[in-house]
């Protein structure tokens, strides 16, 4: 089946992409750039660098902008998915939804309107298992956003590796946070992975942080 992947550049959307590619043809990636950082639907830190990820993978990439206003952004998503139908004859959409009923149900409604299959390969996956899957599949990702105590600015720019996964799982127990960031506690950006033909190297970045909330602004990056 020909599918499009809703792609934010983070670990969840990439892992969903990799899972879906095992049995289906992935025709393109779809990315909406929200104008608000508090978008209800779309990941925002470093999302502008998804173009470089698509180039690293070697896949078509359809993009559009959205106001990021609740519910209005869904119509923008509808238009982008409809464009993918026109250009690539897709038959379904892959999402990185893990536990958010808000996201999953709204994307499902759009797919129903367009008579498409909505595929959520990570749905209800235990978060510790998701983190372990990143390691098992050699997915190199970096933390680009934090939004929970006790995650301080030292987490920004940190790789999601065996040590950080161990710490996140421990913090999940102590502070009742979602270790894989399902509640928005962390955001991420994939630098290299099995479906990448070239890796990405961050050359310059800046941290913006205050009171257990922050993001990593990637200013310069290149393919290697």
What is the compact description of this entry?
This protein has 224 residues and is α/β, with parallel strands linked by helices.
Hey, roughly how much beta strand do the residues contain? 25-35%
The proportion of residues forming helix, as a percent range, comes to 25-40%
Derived from helix and strand composition plus strand pairing, the structural class reads alpha/beta
CATH class of the largest domain reads Alpha Beta
Shape: globular
Strand order of the largest sheet: 3-2-1-4-5
Q: Whole-Å distance between the termini? A: 32 Å
Topology as a string of helices (H) and strands (E): EHEHEHEHEHEHEEE
CATH fold-level name of the largest domain: Rossmann fold
Strand tally: 9
> How many helix segments?
6
Oligomer: single chain
What would the average pLDDT be, to the nearest integer? 93
Low-confidence stretches: none
Largest sheet: 5 strands, parallel
Task: Give the topology.
Elements: E1 2-6, H1 11-21, E2 25-34, H2 50-57, E3 60-66, H3 72-88, E4 92-94, H4 101-114, E5 117-119, H5 127-136, E6 140-147, H6 162-175, E7 186-192, E8 200-210, E9 213-223
Parallel strand pairs: 1-2, 1-4, 2-3, 4-5
Antiparallel strand pairs: 6-7, 6-9, 8-9
Helix pairs in contact: 3-4
Please, could you describe this protein's structure?
With 224 residues, the protein is an alpha/beta fold. The chain has two domains: 2-119, 3-Layer(aba) Sandwich (Rossmann fold); 127-223, Alpha-Beta Complex (putative n-type atp pyrophosphatase, domain 2), CATH 3.90.1490.10. It is built from six helices and nine strands; from the N terminus they run βαβαβαβαβαβαβββ. It has a five-stranded parallel beta sheet, sandwiched between helices. The protein has a four-stranded antiparallel beta sheet with strand order 7-6-9-8. The longest helix has 17 residues, at 72-88. The chain is globular.
């Amino acid at each position: 089946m020909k599918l499009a992947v809703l792609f934010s550049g983070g670990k969840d959307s990439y892992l969903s992409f990799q899972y879906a590619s095992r049995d289906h043809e992935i025709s393109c990636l779809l990315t909406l750039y929200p104008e608000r950082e508090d978008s209800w639907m779309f990941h925002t830190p470093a999302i502008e660098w998804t173009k470089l990820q698509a180039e690293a993978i070697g896949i078509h990439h359809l993009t559009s902008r959205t106001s990021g206003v609740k519910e209005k952004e869904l119509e923008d998503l509808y238009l982008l998915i409809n464009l993918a139908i026109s250009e690539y004859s897709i038959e379904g959409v892959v999402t990185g939804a893990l536990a958010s009923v808000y996201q999953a149900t709204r994307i499902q409604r759009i797919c129903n309107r367009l008579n498409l299959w909505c595929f959520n390969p990570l749905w209800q996956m235990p978060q510790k298992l998701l983190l372990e899957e990143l390691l098992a599949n050699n997915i190199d990702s970096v933390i680009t956003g934090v939004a929970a105590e006790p995650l301080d600015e030292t987490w920004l720019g940190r790789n999601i590796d065996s040590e950080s996964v161990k710490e996140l799982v421990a913090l999940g127990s102590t502070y009742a946070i979602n270790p894989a960031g399902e509640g928005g506690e962390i955001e991420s950006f994939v630098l290299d992975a099995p479906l990448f033909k070239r890796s990405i190297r961050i050359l310059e970045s800046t941290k913006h942080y205050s009171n257990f909330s922050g993001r990593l602004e990637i200013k310069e990056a290149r393919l290697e």
